Amino acid sequence: MTDPQERRLLTPEEYRAAQDSPEFVELKKRFRSFAFPMTVAFLVWYLLYVLLSTYASDFMSTQVFGNVNVGLLFGLGQFVTTFVITHLYVAHANKRTDPIADEMRDRLEAHDYAPGAPAGDTRTQGATRA
Amino acid sequence: MPDLLAADATIGNPAINISIFGAFVVITLAITFRASRNNKSAADYYAAGRTITGQQNGLAIAGDYLSAASFLGIAGAIAIYGYDGFLYSIGFLVAWLVALLLVAELMRNTARFTMADVLAFRMRQGPVRTAAAISTLAVSLFYLLAQMAGAGGLVALLLGVSGPVAEALVVTVVGALMIFYVLVGGMRGTTWVQIIKASLLIAGALVMTLWVLADYGFNLSALLGGAADRAGTTGVLNPGAQYGVSDTTRLDFISLALALVFGTAGLPHVLMRFYTVPTAKAARTSVVWAIWLIGIFYLFSLIIGYGAGAMVGAETIVAAPGGVNAAAPLLAFELGGTVLLGIIAGVAFATILAVVAGLTITASASFAHDVYASVIKKGDVPANGEVKVARITAVVIGAVSIGLGILALRAGLNIAFLVALAFAVAASANLPTILYTLFWKKFTTQGALWSIYGGLIICIGLILFSPVVSGAETSMFPGVDFAWFPLRNPGLVSIPASFLLGWLGTVLTKEKPNEAKWAELEVRALTGIGAEKAVQH
Question: Which residue ranges does UniProt annotate as crossing the membrane (chain A) (predicted)?
Answer without folding.
Answer: 34-52, 72-90
